[in-house]
Design a protein that fits this description.
about 20% helix, 7-stranded antiparallel β-sheet, Rossmann fold, Immunoglobulin-like, 8-stranded mixed β-sheet
Length: about 675
């Protein structure tokens, strides 16, 4: 029996902790959770507040109740235990942690964080009696000739008003102030100070001014964690050196001085430079599989610097949740090393966007993969890729399951494998994942059974969906302009799945549009355009020659979330894209033109396809063309009861901070490793 802390929800001024229960006998509503404070040994027992679904429950508490009144402590660390009191089963199960939170400010002088101990057990840490003149930020970096600061703009879900950054000069006591602009992620701000604004030869301390509950405040900026992974030095165009320093009191000091000369900088280079990197760089670009296997069998040692490898769809794209995590990581912790594992087709994209990469199936790729400390991928690595013991492998996966997965597929018809081999490879690969990202309770349960997976599940939502929650109308206009999509027309997004039986030979897939582009254009071409997003396995198997003024093939666009945002409706069949698109509460139309064959002969479904979908089903091309017009007339589905039931079941977990939660998980692993 296991109990796992898997989520945190805010209910006005209260907190709800979500627990996943594995092999715990029902009834769940008879269970209680005991909190035990580690130092004082004071305990607090709370009942299960709500049973969400099979194996998922919540308890509601007020974090302020976790203070121990008689204690002189200001910091409290509470362990959690599931207290079994059923007739046949009694005892305590210590709650594990799969959820790590940011700092949640309860007031100016108190905050809490959900964390885990060295053994992965859950801790609810409450900090009280904190100075009201301190303000904790999330990250600080020197990039693009700017001092960049990221931090919270809320206290206990109440917005902080009129935030400004302030530098105080230690020499002449002078001050300067810069306004703060909002960042893309909900609940955070992003402020910048141009390095050209810094006083010469100065030591300046960073403050923040704001208004909280009508009170004007000036607080010293602090950083509770280390500066590891953040860029703390920069040389400006005027040959000036700027350095970020963390002081003994966690405060932030900015020093500006003359940059060292070239001979001085060269004098600080290491005296020995290894030749292994140069040797690997001149190895031939293509190596055969046997050579790759031999390379993976060689012993490797991890890089001294934390190194994260990202891969999306087997290197075919730079996209999806790994890309969302990468973008936030490079913003908050640019001092770490980030490398993308890519197919050769992605080299141009990476070079154009300044993304460091290594080409798959090269000697350099093997070395980089084996010496990295984190792998972050949304699909499986080849079975012959060796995972070192020091690697933490985070699997983001790539969708909420509609179709059967892994062990649940009874008959596998994909090229180059058999059902037995596919099942064995799937379980073997899943057991290499140290953590698996899940978007909802439904997916968590399927992942555990279909993958035979018993390691950590991070139920934080898909990072790729953060963009859906944090984007504005202006952002959507900018995206359309960037993609060349007309601003005066509706956008219909067609994003079907690939069929397991739709292959010509191993590695080659085929696809044909199941409706007439001529009929589509004749009926809607004056008022709408069609955007295609094909599955990555078939994205190169489609020809739209002659329709370029009406059809836009965005199959290789790095972010499918961009396509969701620019579209007014979605047409799909069995692809899991509709789970994500539902976040926007826009109309969804299903066109399963081969439904019965797909259901009965291919994979089958977890949901009842005819009852549980958040939209209507078009069974033929005539119905499809009629329903498109109807859906374009109902742009908001918020008043549709069936749609909103679906939304509450599958979409309610996401708060626009999924990327941040995964980043926090990785950073904690790095700091725990020293």
């Amino acid at each position: 029996m296991r109990a796992i802390l898997s989520g945190l929800h805010h209910k006005k001024k209260l907190q709800e902790l979500e627990l996943e229960l594995i092999d715990v006998p029902e009834p769940f509503d008879d269970l209680v959770v005991t909190f035990l404070e580690k130092q004082t040994q004071v305990s607090l027992t709370l009942p299960i507040t709500k049973v969400i679904s099979a194996g998922v429950v919540r308890i509601r508490l007020n974090a302020n109740d976790l203070r121990v009144p008689e204690s002189t402590q200001s910091d409290f660390s509470w362990e959690l235990y599931l207290n079994l009191q059923q007739q046949d089963t009694r005892g305590l199960i210590q709650v594990e942690s799969e959820y790590l939170s940011d700092r949640h400010q309860l007031s100016l002088t108190s905050f809490y964080q959900l964390n885990s101990d060295a053994n992965g057990m859950a801790l609810f840490n409450l900090h009280t009696n904190q100075p009201d003149d301190e303000f904790a930020i999330s990250a600080i970096n020197l990039q693009n000739d700017q001092l960049q600061i990221t931090g919270p703009n809320r206290i206990n879900n109440r917005k902080i008003d009129n935030q400004r950054l302030v530098l105080k000069n230690g020499q002449d006591q002078g001050t300067a102030e810069w306004p703060i602009t909002k960042m893309g992620l909900h609940g955070l701000f992003s402020g910048v100070i141009p390095l050209s604004d810094l006083a010469s030869n100065s030591k300046q301390e960073l403050f923040i001014r704001s208004t909280v509950d009508g009170q004007d405040l000036e607080q010293r900026v602090i950083l509770g964690k280390s500066l590891a992974g953040q860029v703390t030095q920069a040389i400006t165009g005027h040959h000036r050196l700027v350095v970020i320093e963390k002081r003994f009191n966690n405060g932030i000091q900015i020093r500006e001085m003359a940059a060292p000369s070239l001979p001085e900088r060269l004098g600080h280079l290491p005296s020995k430079v290894g030749g292994a990197t140069h040797l690997l760089s001149v190895l031939m670009e293509k190596v055969n599989l046997m050579y790759m296997r031999r390379l993976f069998k060689r012993g490797h040692r991890a890089y001294d610097q934390p190194t994260l490898i990202f891969e999306s769809f087997g290197g075919r794209q730079v996209s999806d949740s790994p890309y969302a995590i990468y973008q936030l990581f490079t913003q908050l912790y640019p001092g770490f090393r980030f490398v993308w594992s890519i197919d050769r087709t992605q080299k141009k994209f990476c070079k154009q966007n300044g993304i460091p990469f290594v080409v798959r199936r090269t000697a350099k790729w093997v070395r980089t993969l084996e010496k990295a400390t984190f792998w972050i991928s949304n699909a499986r690595f080849p079975a012959w890729v060796k995972k070192p013991s020091y690697v933490t492998y985070i699997q983001t996966w790539h969708g909420t399951p509609l179709k059967k997965l892994g062990l649940d597929i009874e008959n596998v018809s994909m090229p180059g494998t058999t059902t037995t081999k596919y099942h064995a490879n799937f379980v073997r690969e899943a057991n290499r994942w140290d953590a698996l990202v899940s978007p909802n309770d439904y997916s968590t349960q399927i992942f555990r059974s279909a993958f035979g997976f018993n390691n950590q599940i991070l139920k934080v939502g898909y990072p790729r969906n953060d963009e859906l929650i944090n984007s504005s109308a202006e952002d959507i206009v900018a995206l359309k302009t960037q993609m060349g999509i007309p601003l005066d027309k509706k956008v219909v997004l067609y994003a079907p799945t690939y069929r397991d039986n739709q292959f010509a030979e191993k590695g080659k897939y085929t696809f044909e549009l199941p409706f007439s582009l001529d009929d589509f254009k004749q009926q809607y071409g004056d008022d709408a355009v069609l955007v295609l997003r094909m599955h990555y396995l078939i994205s190169n198997a489609l020809d739209i020659s002659g329709y370029e003024d009406f059809v836009y093939d965005m199959s290789n666009h790095p972010s499918i979330s961009d396509l969701y945002l620019i579209s007014d409706m979605l047409i799909t069949d069995y692809s899991s894209v509709f789970f994500d698109y539902a976040y926007l509460k826009r109309p969804i139309l299903f066109y399963p033109y081969d439904y019965h064959m797909y259901k009965d002969e291919l994979r089958g479904f977890y949901l009842d396809y005819e009852r549980d979908l958040p939209g209507e089903i078009a069974h033929n091309e005539k119905e499809l063309l009629t329903m498109i017009g109807e859906k374009l007339q109902t742009p908001d589905m918020s008043d549709n009861p069936k749609f909103m039931d679906f939304y509450r079941r599958f979409c309610a977990i996401d708060d626009g901070l999924s990327s941040l939660k995964v980043v926090n998980y990785v950073v904690q692993q790095i700091e725990n490793q020293g």
